[in-house]
Amino acid sequence: MCGNLQSLCFRFLLKGTLTPGLLLAISLLFLSGRGLSQDLTDPGSWAASLPKRTLVIVVPTFTVKHQRIQSSVQNHAPEARGRLQAERIMQRDRSYRDTLLLALSASFQEHYQFGKVRLMPDTSYARWQKGLSPLTWIDLEGKTATLSGIVNNEVIFLKKKKTSRETGTGVEVWMASTPDRQDLPGKFPDQFREGSLGTRFIRFLEAFLTFTTSPDTLEEQRVITDYLARQVDRKWSAYIDSLEE
Asked: Nearest 5°: CA angle at 128, between 154 and 194?
C-alpha cells in the first residue's frame, strides 16, 4: 500500500501539481506513523506476554434475543401457539448455552496449555464495552467471580462471530482480540473455525436431512470445543516457536 502511495505522490510531482503532491506526501507520512502506532510492534514481546494473559472466552447467553421474543409475545395467552413456540425456542437456546459452558470448560481444561482461561457471559462483555461494572466471569471449575474492570495487557478475548463470504453465506468463527482494540502482530492466528472440515460438512447435511430442533448433547458439543481448544493451543504454540527460530 505504501509503495502505491509513494508512486502516486511522485506522479503528482512530475505532473507539476505541487500542492496535491505535498499534501499526499504528508498524508503518507501520517499513515505510515499511524500504522506503526496501531500495530503491536514487537512480536517477541507480544509472544512473551501471551502465556501471562488470561484467555477470556465470551459465551453467548441469548439475553437480548430472548428479551425481544418475550416482548413480542407478552400479550399472547399462555396457551397460544406463538407463545408456546417462543418458549420452545428460548428453552432450546438455554440448553445450548448451558451445554456449551460445560463443553468449553472441559475442552480448554484438557487441551489448552498456555495459562488461565475464564468464560465471560456476553452480557458482561457488553457491559465492559460500555465502560460499566461490575463484570462477571466463570473459571473452568464453574466458580463465578465479580470484577471491577479489565486490565488491557492481562487478557485476550475469544469471541464467536459470523464472517461474510462472497457467496453471501456466513461462517461462524471464534475471533481473538485485545481489550485495547490494537491490531495484533502480523501472522498472529486470530481466527478459528468451529470444527474440522468433516464436522462442518456433517452439520451442513444435518441441517437439510434432519428435522430435530433438539440442542446438541454435551458429547456433540465436545467434538466442536475440543477442536477449538486444540486449534488455539497448536496455532499459538507454532506462532511462538516461529519467532524463536
From this structure: 75
54-91 pLDDT, tens digit each? 999 999 999 999 999 999 999 999 899 999 999 999 99
- Which stretches of 167-239 are assigned E, i.e. beta strand? 170-177, 191-193
Cβ atoms of 12 and 21 closer than 8 Å: yes
**Please, what sign has the CA dihedral across residues 91, 93, 95, 97?**
negative
Do residues 120 and 135 touch, judged by C-beta distance below 8 A?
yes
Task: Tell me the three cell numbers of residue 69.
Answer: 421474543
Which three three-digit cell numbers place residue 35? Answer: 500504522
What is the rounded distance in angstroms from the CA atom of residue 212 to the CA atom of residue 89?
Answer: 13
Buried b (16+ CB within 10 A) or exposed e, 166-192: eeeeeeebbebbbbeeeebbeebebeb
pTM higher than the cut 0.70: yes
State the Cα–Cα distance between residues 85 and 68, nearest whole angstrom.
14
